[in-house]
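Duplicate of #3305? Posting structure anyway:
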């Protein structure tokens, strides 16, 4: 039995453009196969499929991809690249120019939120942010 589970992203004719864009954003990324209907690609070594399915379905925030970052520089990189032509949201969320939702978060967030007393302070700071600021969260 195969354990290969990977997402299929439904685009309106933009699957290859999206795959090419994402491969410029993430290291260890490449297009692995393509035809007029489907493009398969890897982002940071993880498999994805882009399908040119037409205009019937649109992306929404019910599904998002989480990018765990070690440093503020990583947060800045992913935030700046993925918001180009897209839109910022709150609490580290954004939509890229293809409508795909992403969460750009520091790896330390789980640790900060594990202490109930600290979590309330971190949450109060976090809920006011768009792009997350590690120092502000740590110092909350």
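Output from current build:
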């Amino acid at each position: 039995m195969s354990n290969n589970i990977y997402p299929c992203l439904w685009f309106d004719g933009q699957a290859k453009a999206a795959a090419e864009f994402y491969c410029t954003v993430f290291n260890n990324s490449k297009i692995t196969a393509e035809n007029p209907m489907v493009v398969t690609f890897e982002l940071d070594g993880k498999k994805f499929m882009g399908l040119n399915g037409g205009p019937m379905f649109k992306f929404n925030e019910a599904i998002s991809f989480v990018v765990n970052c070690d440093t503020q520089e990583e947060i800045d990189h992913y935030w700046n690249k993925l918001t180009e032509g897209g839109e910022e949201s709150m609490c580290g969320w954004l939509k890229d120019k293809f409508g795909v939702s992403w969460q750009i978060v520091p790896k330390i967030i789980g640790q900060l939120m594990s202490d109930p007393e600290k979590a309330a302070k971190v949450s109060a700071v976090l809920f006011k942010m768009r792009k997350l600021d590690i120092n502000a969260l740590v110092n909350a």
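Confirmed duplicate; merging threads. Helices lie at 15-25, 72-83, 109-114, 116-126, 134-138. The chain has a mean pLDDT of 96.
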